[in-house]
Design brief:
It is a single chain. This protein has 337 residues and is an alpha+beta fold. It folds into five domains: 43 residues; 55 residues, Ubiquitin-like (UB roll) (Roll); 55 residues, Ubiquitin-like (UB roll) (Roll); 54 residues, Resuscitation-promoting factor rpfb fold (Single Sheet), CATH 2.20.230; 99 residues, RlpA-like domain (Barwin-like endoglucanases), CATH 2.40.40.10. The protein is 18% helix and 43% strand. The chain is built from six helices and 22 strands. A six-stranded mixed β-barrel has the order 17-21-18-20-19-22. The longest helix is centred in the first third of the chain and has 25 residues.
Length: 337
Amino acid sequence: MSWKKSLLDWWGSAGYKKCSEKNRSVLKAAVSLMVVLFVLAIGVRAEKSVVIIDDGKELAVRTYAGTVADALAVKDIVLLNNDEVTPSLDSALVSGMAIRIDRATDVSISVDGRMLPVRTQCRVVGDLLNEAGVAPGPEDEVSPALNSAVTPGMNVVVARVVTKTEEKEAVVNFETEQKYTVNLPQGTTRIAEEGRNGTAQQIWKVKYKDGIEIARQLVSSKMIAPPVNQLVMVGSGLVVSRGGENIRYAEAIDMVASAYTHTGNNTSCGVAPHYGVAAVDPAFIPLWTKLYVEGYGYATALDVGGSIKGNRIDLFFESYNEAMRWGIRNVEVYRID
């Protein structure tokens, strides 16, 4: 005899009729609850047909499981970090249900000297970095780019780039100048003036990538102490033959030569003017320098002139007529001292 029949028999018996009205109400509620629980138990225990779609692969399953989690466990389906299941794992299993598993993508992020393994549902690199709590700076380099698609096995490299302003005191090296002279044997040298390095205050913009300098740009430089160039005298081996005489010289200069005569004044060196006096630009040829001028002969730089600048030279003649005959001409001037 089933429990249903026994319960109905009792319901119509004298025992039920003897219960008070209050007890009858409680009894009815208890019986109704038992019926509901019985129906649910039958539903849970019933075999159900569901489909599990695991990362696009379908698997038909017949099971007595009661929840989505139970159905996955029956098939030994293991979920990893950030895998997503729809419906949720605690959802009651219903026949005809489709259970979708979206597997997270395995990638890695290289940043700040570390490699971080990540499983993610993100579709683009920018979202991946945001999810991982990695914030690129304004100059940082991200490879692949932020808008690139996330692909399995991808390694996203975030290079930290920073530009700093740096000040430093720098050495300014002196240069070496050579000057030929006939006062030394040919080919020998003598330091006439020792060189001395200078210093400058410099401001640089320096770019670093992951702590390593990759670029440097000079913004400004202010000379604190200028360098003093080193002067080296070199024995000249240069010789020119003029009038049957071999003239050893230190330097040959193309110049424009004019002429002048007595003015009633001594030269700027305090010497009375005479043939062989030349007026020069002291910034171009130092005073007291001995010269040989083509077509004129030996001369010494003893005077200056207001219009004598650069490669101009003014040669003294004893008379006005001689000066006029010379006129202005291009000449080769040999510095012999």
